[in-house]
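TL;DR need structure tokens for one chain.
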Amino acid sequence: MSKELKLTDREWKEFVFGDVFDIQATSSGIDKKRLFGGVGDVPYLTRTDNNNGIDGFVEPQGTSSLDEGNVITIGLDTQTVFYQESSFYTGQNIQVVRHKKLDKYNALFIIRTIKILVQKFSWGSYGATLTRLRRGKLFLPIQSEGTPDWAFMSAFMKQEEEHLITAARKKLEEQLLEDIIILGALEDREWREFYFSDIFTSIRRGKRLKKDDHLQGEVPYVSSTAGNNGVDGFVGNTEGVRIFRDCISLANSGSVGSAFFQLYDFVASDHVTSLKKEGLNRYAYLFLLPIISRLSEKYSFNREINDARISRERLLLPVQSDGAPDWAFMSAFMQRVEQETLSKALQFFKPKCKKMQIGGGG
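>> reply
TL;DR here they are.
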């Protein structure tokens, strides 16, 4: 597992904006009223703070020169800052920031610091001008020789993108499951309520392990957090703890109702209950997660899911003709959901992966 990058991993230094970057007014400078061909493929930028500054798309404007892409654009009076990957046309009062080492990711990193700078400008005595912009100061991470660390900035923002994609994928998977159910993909099955004790062969709560008693190790410590599959750290404790695997972890308090499938060994805190059924496969467990997570609508931080309450809770599940839970159907259904989700993900990542291969790097 690669090390998580942190902003504190590098020394930082203050730079004069104009000493590091080439900052010029846009070269196209076309008045919107003079545009022809209202529909086309070329972005037309204004100082709007919406849609990455894009006000529409136009046809190529004859002899008018395009502003090249892979730049940062700044609307000084509106304090808007965006990265432009493609070439574009624009009007007046847009400043363009260029550097030979600029790419999409380090540009997104630098945009954060530029926004801090331009927010200092006002409509009063310290108004926004190109000269003042060039004299402004940016605080950036540096390499050992004191120059901006372009590679670190890119890597850090790629890491941030990965975090966002991971979170978005989870939400999309959940939404996909809900949509399929709502659209009637499961209406050809009979459903029946079951008590938790009728479904799970083992319902056991974890054991308290104070933070000061955590030993360094590699076994996931699952608590009541709603993120990272419930993992709140890693420990090496083997005595005085309860270790589970191949089951569902349910948060009793904290992020009450958060439920995750745990394939590998984990140490459970006393805020977590292990729900296990012998012989159940991963896909059937995954089918149960959104159903169990509905408990979050009923309980809260001040009303935890204790052992007595779990024993009274029920699950609504699809059944076979004999009234028993249809585990084969649940497993097959989740495999289909996974296949559809991965197919969409592959379509999303295919252009990205192709670009990485052409560029020879990540």
